[in-house]
């Protein structure tokens, strides 16, 4: 799973670079034709990894219930994120993956609850969830690239 995590780290570094230099106003702008903004996509990446990798493994997540409710699958941007919230999300973008790396090294991922994704793929193992998470992050990197051009 360490190799899979290297892809996740690369994804997170890419996301960080893609949104660097954008103002709070730009991060919060929902372009016409979109339901969400740049910061929603970043937070959604963080929240989804926690739910797929930790919750399905029966482990505690590293994000608040408030963030989960605001950025989980099926949500959309309903209010602007404050600078404080943006800072928290950007910190979590990296700290959650650093912790995941430690948790893999400490062999914490022992259990898993099977989960059928909205794509039709059924996650059956911890490795499946980490691999699917990378696929999911790739989708949202594409959305971030599109939104960047419009804000």
Q: How do the strands of the widest beta sheet line up side by side? A: 1-2
Q: N-to-C terminal Cα separation, in Å?
A: 36 Å
> Which word captures the global form?
globular
Mean pLDDT: 97
Measured by DSSP, the beta-strand proportion falls in under 5%
Name the CATH superfamily assignment: dinb family like domain
The total domain count is 1
pLDDT < 50 stretches: none
Q: Compute the number of strand runs.
A: 2
Described by strand count, sense and barrel closure, the largest sheet is: 2 strands, antiparallel
Helical content stands at: 55-70%
* SS element count, helices: 6
The CATH topology comes to Four Helix Bundle (Hemerythrin (Met), subunit A)
Under the CATH scheme, which architecture would be assigned?
Up-down Bundle
What is the H/E order?
Answer: HHHHHEEH
Radius of gyration: 15 Å
In the CATH hierarchy, what is the class? Mainly Alpha
Topology (elements, then pairings):
Blueprint: H1 2-19, H2 24-28, H3 38-54, H4 65-71, H5 83-105, E1 115-116, E2 122-123, H6 126-148
Antiparallel strand pairs: 1-2
In short:
The chain contains six helices and two strands. The chain is mainly α.
Features:
151 residues; 62% helix; mainly alpha; Four Helix Bundle (Hemerythrin (Met), subunit A); 6 helices; 2 strands
